[in-house]
Amino acid sequence: MKFSFDRDAMIKEVSIAQEVITTKLPDFILSNILLNAENNTLTIKATNTSANFITTLPVDIQEEGITTIHCDKFMNILSSLPAGEVEFAQDPDDIKVTIRPVSKKIKFQLKSIGSEKFPDIAVSQTVPFFEVPSKELKEMIQQTVFAVSSDPARAFLTGVYFTKDQDNLIMVATDGRRLSYASKPIAQNILDFTPAVVPVKILNCILKNASDEGSVMLAVVDRMIFFKFANYEFSSSLLEVEFPNYKRVIPENQSFSFQVLKSDIDQALRRTALMVDKKSCRILFKIQSGVLQLVSPESEFGTADEEIPCRYDGNPVTIAINYHYIEDPLKVMNVENIVFEFTEPSKAVTLHAEPKGDYFHIIMPMNVE
Fold first, then answer.
1. What's phi and psi for 227, nearest 5 deg?
2. How far apart are CA 26 and CA 22, in angstroms?
3. Cβ distance 173 to 161 under 8 Å?
4. Please, what sign has the CA dihedral across residues 322, 325, 331, 335?
5. What CA–CA distances, in Å, run from 177 to 90, 319, 336?
6. Cα separation of 261 and 257, whole Å?
7. Which residues contact 153 (CB under 8 A, 6 or more apart)?
8. Strand ranges for 316-358 from DSSP E
9. Percent of the chain with pLDDT over 70
């Protein structure tokens, strides 16, 4: 096996493989990537058994072959080398591969594991893909993925619910105290598919690596989800859980609302949070005509409060909220004005853009005292 490649091009592909591979796995082969060199194309595969990645890279092949090598070590070697052409070689009877830059007297030898020990990865040749605009799909992921639960004991809340309703694709995430919802009218020509609960890991890979331009090919079938774009194919097992009935959480109507500039509340929230008790993360929103006051209750360090202008004409009211549940959606809302809707201090608060867009975030308040 012998081929040469551009160092920077290889780094780009291997870095994506690193995102998929999970460290500290009991099976050492899962820390490896598979390299298959044939027809002047290098196919790279990575898996952690639930999430998979396949990519192709044009290379100059002198001898075809297939092997697996440790992903992180390969990346460390590549990162240490100067830019330019790199040669990769392995004798048929040797477990070590040789990696060296063509223009320098540098040589690494890295142990390999036979490709026959690498796990099979689900293939998509017969999968019924549908096409969605990449930018819209990424926006949906961005508006929901942060709201999943990180508690492994609540596995049914650790993924993003993905479904189709007439001409709309829908994504929903919740950790039981907040809910994020995104819907896009981009499913006009898409056949119905079984609703899926998609692991966060694969969605973050799509969010990071898909372009804002063009389309993503997507398929949900046989407890798997597939994504294809550019020269990449990602796939993942779906979470075999029953997602809660999210529609019951969405308020039908809310009596009151106030509007603030996103820049105002973003900055005030970050300053006020400096004095918040880190166990409760509670901030008081004191709303009165024309003014929103953010207050951090007394902690071991002290207090903070700040007033910002708001559009509100109702009676004074105080709502206690975990500030992270405001901070997280603000990071991904690229708008000028933010609206909070509510009925009473102990019931759900809805956060959305103004004008209202394709997404919203629902937050359950905390006790004021």
1. -130, 135
2. 10
3. yes
4. negative
5. 54, 15, 26
6. 14
7. none
8. 317-322, 337-342, 349-354
9. 99
Question: How do residues 129-170 score in pLDDT, each as one tens digit?
Answer: 999 999 999 999 999 999 999 998 898 899 999 999 999 999
Helix (H, G, I), strand (E, B) or coil at 339: strand
What's the mean per-residue pLDDT of the chain?
Answer: 95
- Give the CA distances from residue 119 to residues 15, 153, 221, in Å, rounded to whole numbers and listed in that order: 20, 28, 20
Q: Domains in the chain and their CATH numbers?
A: 2-117 (3.10.150.10), 130-248 (3.10.150.10), 256-363 (3.10.150.10)
The yes-or-no verdict on residue 216 having pLDDT over 90 is: yes
Please state, in angstroms and rounded to a whole number, the distance separating the CA atoms of residues 5 and 22: 26
pLDDT at 35: 98
Say if CB 366 and CB 320 are below 8 A apart.
yes
- Cβ neighbours, 10 Å, residue 157: 21
Query: d(Cα 210, Cα 213) in Å, to the nearest integer?
Result: 8
**Sequence-separated contacts (24+) of 354-361 with Cβ below 8 Å:** 354/259, 358/139, 358/140, 358/182, 358/183, 358/184, 359/139, 359/140, 359/143, 359/144, 359/180, 359/181, 359/182, 359/183, 360/180, 360/181, 361/143, 361/147, 361/178, 361/179, 361/180, 361/181, 361/325, 361/329
Q: Measure the CA–CA gap between 53 and 122, rounded to whole angstroms.
A: 10
